[in-house]
Amino acid sequence: MSNKDTIGYAWKGDDCAAAVQALEQAKNLRILVVGDLMVDAYLLGKVNRISPEAPVPILSASRRERRPGGAANVALNLKALGAAVTVAGVIGADPDGQDLRKAMEDMDMDTAGVLAFDDRRTTVKTRIMGGGQHMLRVDEEDDMDLSADQAQRFLERLAVVMGKQSFDAILIEDYDKGVLSPQVISGLLHMAQEKAIPVSVDPKFRHFQCYTGVALFKPNLKEFREGLGLVWEDGDAEAMERALAKGLSRLMADWHPDAVLLTLSEHGVRIKTALSDVQQPAHPREILDVSGAGDTVIAVATVLLAQGTDAATMAQVANLAGGLVCEKPGVVPVDLHALLDEVRRLPIQA
After folding, report:
1. Known catalytic membership, residue 295
2. What is the DSSP string of 69-121?
């Protein structure tokens, strides 16, 4: 890994070539995605008036859509990049779960790691969209941690999956819906370490501190702030910078990741390793919907991680990809050709 040891760095021709090559070689990878599976449901239409019953808009609904969401959306992003994907998670023994499994299989995902439990509902997030604008979201879910018995059954399934196939990386997608209990996290990281498989993690707050010794840890700003108990006044840029630097150093020292990729919304991304601390600014975009951007960032980063791409280059490309999907309404996977075009258009600096 090269030592680009300042905040911001010059994008070189070699960086561009390495990024393009890694994206084009994603088709040779197999990645195990472990996490909270859910259904992203949409009720779409137009709003033309306010209800006479209450001061709320009336949606004139025109269609409904259902897509694999959560960890399944991360898997969709990996598929869109060309990688082969095995999905592992828990669904309910209900029609929503059956539909979700079939949808993933129809999209050529291996669902050998998916278990259905009678006493859990499949998570469904329904987004109400009017004229391309996100108006309301309704969640139906059971988000308690798996019981000890359920966690053990899930770990046994993971052991079988990992015994039958080799993986270039494991991507853990935690939405705090209970599948990634401390017992599951510990067992999964142990299996990955035994097989020397690099692990990337997109964490949430509940079990933030359980992910030790991973190759890539990717919190967003809210998760990072809450997970480490960082405090600063909103709008105080200097205090925020001091808190971020302190938090990153603490995370590296206490959790021992190889790299931390911190997404900062309109401020871009920041990646820290033992040798470097680099911030990539956000690229100007017409933002329609930020839903699913984090899924895209971790998917792209994992594809590059699996191929040993330089950390700063990985952050640059993942940052581009996250911005691209924000230009479309709803949760959508990244377009590989559009991403390659964006990478090639980045200005080369001497």
Report:
1. yes
2. EEHHHHHHHHHHTT-EEEEEEEEESSHHHHHHHHHHHHTT-EEEEEEEETTSP
